[in-house]
């Protein structure tokens, strides 16, 4: 029987509570055959619209017709338009949607009893600590959880005839920088601080404590602070944060049960609310409720191991950077990165994939080729793919399949999909498997973000290099004859001089050419005829000395640097060249195929020549002798 497939959508900023929710889902699914496909990104409210679109484009990747159900982790994803889009697509595909954290029409709700827990918090602050005035640092106005907590606070105060005790409600948009600025403004305003600051999550609470301390205000001595989510880091923070444990693992298990009930045709209630509890801590002046010092000592012991892991992880990222940025072609990048990850994939694991847009490489060489911004291509390119330790050597695969080599039987797995992009231009995506341990240390965020940046640097570097090469080619190309120009010749002369300085056995010769009668043709038939004459002369030089670079020095002068086969056969080539020339004539009209050119060749002699100029001088002298001889023979 094929596995069930559950599509899950969230941002990764709530990594710790998301990990708890996923752990609950994974445990509940252990009794059946099912995989979780998590589509994850890290947009922030102050990103540009293009950047947000590039991040959340990963939500467009799955075809939900291939899934049995959808789970939206609303505590991490409160972009209303995006959530509406995911719900609409799920409904079109005919699959049920479980919405965590907020209630939406046509979805099954699962959440925690934030309302009662907030009231319990308020009761504790009032009865145990005599708190009267309160400020509330909210998340966003679109966040169901944040708004529900605010409502519970207001209802508690109203029930107790204390509506005026709510001193302030400030929306932080979940941004620490916003918290810092606002708390600084409170501290410097000269106004009296509230008795307590209730924060919409532990992150805001910890940032508030730090900013207050920087202003000489200590928690809990001068003001009490509380949070939500009961994160591990908030438990060892100083002071440990009084918080609400929302039991996200139980929510995850409930989400699975609600999905299964719906799929099995059972009557599904509107949703399920998981009881949660307020846990006092040092930040509300309760030191006796938990042994925070023991948790800090444990965290301290683990710090050494985390430092070692971080050090080796950063070395791996540096190695990826150096590998990618050392590549001069896209094919080189594919080969080197594939070899690097095949040889060393300790961090990535035995199931890891890098999938690229098929036009990524083409966009490097042609700026008119645009990358997708609101979808992924039907056929994607595989940069690297390993599933269950087996390398996939295919070049292309259908993006609808999501994971190369995916097996619809066997052990349950969690697949995590994250976008590679620059602004709203999609480069591709990466896939990790069974990586719950990599959420909390931000390994996944750091990895895919760094990978996106290095691909962007590579793309821009190659594009600029290509533009520079094209510009240099134009700068060093003669517009009339399309051979190299005087600038290119000067560079070649410098290169030859460097070789003379370092290679005593160097072999080359210089051929100098002067086209006869150009002035006569220009004066009598016009410059267009003169240009056509120069092109005929140039073609003859190139056809005879076909293995050597040819340069137009200006006007009617050309040069060639003979090496290799042309050097070895320079005497025979010189004779062939003379045989193909027209007899010298200065009488008009000249035949239509007339070409008369004076030529002189000089061979580098390491015993007597110390500079390229020595060789050029002899070639010039030989050319002028040839010109004089041709004129003499014509009389």
Give short descriptive properties of this protein.
Alpha-Beta Plaits; 19% strand; alpha/beta; 635 residues; Rossmann fold; elongated; twelve-stranded mixed beta sheet
Kindly provide the radius of gyration, computed on alpha-carbon positions and rounded to a whole number of angstroms. 37 Å
| Structural class label | alpha/beta
* Mean pLDDT over the full residue set: 91
Low-confidence stretches: none
Tally of separate helices: 19
Binned, the helix content reads 40-55%
How would a textbook summarize the main sheet? 12 strands, mixed
> Alpha-carbon distance between the termini?
100 Å
Count of β-strands: 22
* Number of spatially distinct domains: 3
Shape verdict = elongated
Query: Per DSSP, what share of the residues sits in E-state strands of 2 or more residues?
Result: 15-25%
In terms of quaternary structure, the protein is single chain
Give a brief outline of the structure.
With 635 residues, the protein is of the alpha/beta class. Strand 14 (379-387) and strand 15 (390-391) form a beta hairpin.
How does this model look, in words?
The structure is a single chain. Helix content is 45%, strand content 19%. The protein is an alpha/beta fold and 635 residues long. It has 3 domains: 4-95 and 303-464, no CATH class; 112-248 and 269-290, Rossmann fold; 486-634, Alpha-Beta Plaits. A hairpin with a 2-residue loop joins β20 (550-554) and β21 (557-562). The N and C termini lie far apart (100 Å).
């Amino acid at each position: 029987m094929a596995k069930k497939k559950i599509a899950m959508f969230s941002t990764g900023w709530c990594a710790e509570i998301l990990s708890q929710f996923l752990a609950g889902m994974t445990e509940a699914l252990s009794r059946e055959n099912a995989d979780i496909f998590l589509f994850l990104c890290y947009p922030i409210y102050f990103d540009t619209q293009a950047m947000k679109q590039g991040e959340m484009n990963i939500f467009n990747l799955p075809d939900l017709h291939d899934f049995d159900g959808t789970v939206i982790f609303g505590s991490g994803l409160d972009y209303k338009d995006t959530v509406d889009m995911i719900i609409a697509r799920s409904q079109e595909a005919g699959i049920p949607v479980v919405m965590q954290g907020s209630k939406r029409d046509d979805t099954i709700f699962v959440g925690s009893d934030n309302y009662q827990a907030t009231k319990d918090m308020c009761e504790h602050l009032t009865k145990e600590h005599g708190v009267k005035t309160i400020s509330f640092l909210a998340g966003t106005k679109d966040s169901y959880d944040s708004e529900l907590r605010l409502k519970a606070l207001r209802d508690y105060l109203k029930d107790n005839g204390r509506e005026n005790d709510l001193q302030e409600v400030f929306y932080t948009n979940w941004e620490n920088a916003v918290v810092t600025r606002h708390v600084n403004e409170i501290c410097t305003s000269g106004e009296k601080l509230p008795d307590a600051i209730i924060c919409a999550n532990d992150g805001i609470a910890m940032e508030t404590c730090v900013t207050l301390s920087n202003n000489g205000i200590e928690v809990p001595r001068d003001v009490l602070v509380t949070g939500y989510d009961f994160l591990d880091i908030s438990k060892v923070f100083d002071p440990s944060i009084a918080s609400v444990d929302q039991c996200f693992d139980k929510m995850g298990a409930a989400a699975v049960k609600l999905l299964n009930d719906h799929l099995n045709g059972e009557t599904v209630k509107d949703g399920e609310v998981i009881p949660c509890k307020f846990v006092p801590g040092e930040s509300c002046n309760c030191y006796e409720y938990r042994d925070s010092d023991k948790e800090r000592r444990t965290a301290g012991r683990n710090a050494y191991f985390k430092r070692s892991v971080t050090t080796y992880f950063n070395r791996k990222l540096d190695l990826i950077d150096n590998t990618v940025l050392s590549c001069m072609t896209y094919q080189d990048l594919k080969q080197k990165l594939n070899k690097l990850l095949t040889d060393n994939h300790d961090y990535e694991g035995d199931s890891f994939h890098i999938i690229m847009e098929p036009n990524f490489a083409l966009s490097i060489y042609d700026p008119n080729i645009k990358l997708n911004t609101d979808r992924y291509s039907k056929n994607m390119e595989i940069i690297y793919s390993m599933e269950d330790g087996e390398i996939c050597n295919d070049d292309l695969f259908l993006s609808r399949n999501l994971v190369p080599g995916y097996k619809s039987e066997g052990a349950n797995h969690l697949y995590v999909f994250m976008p590679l992009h620059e602004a709203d231009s999609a480069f591709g995506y990466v896939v990790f498997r069974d990586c719950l341990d990599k959420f909390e240390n931000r390994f996944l965020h750091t990895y895919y973000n760094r990978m996106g940046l290095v691909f962007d640097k590579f793309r821009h570097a190659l594009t600029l290099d290509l533009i520079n090469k094209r510009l240099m080619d134009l700068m060093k190309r003669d517009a009339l004859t399309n051979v190299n120009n005087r600038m290119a010749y000067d560079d070649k002369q410098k290169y030859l001089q460097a070789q003379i300085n370092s290679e005593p056995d160097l072999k080359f010769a210089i051929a100098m050419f002067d086209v006869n009668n150009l002035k006569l043709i220009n004066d009598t038939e016009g410059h267009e005829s003169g240009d056509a004459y120069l092109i005929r002369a140039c073609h003859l030089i190139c056809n005879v000395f076909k293995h050597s670079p040819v340069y137009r020095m200006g006007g009617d002068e050309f040069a060639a640097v003979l090496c290799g086969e042309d050097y070895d056969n320079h005497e025979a080539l010189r004779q062939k060249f003379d045989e193909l020339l027209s007899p010298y004539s200065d009488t008009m009209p000249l035949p239509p195929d007339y070409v008369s050119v004076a030529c002189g060749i000089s061979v580098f002699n390491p015993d007597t020549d110390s500079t390229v100029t020595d060789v050029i001088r002899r070639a010039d002298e030989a050319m002028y002798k040839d010109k004089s001889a041709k004129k003499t023979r014509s009389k």
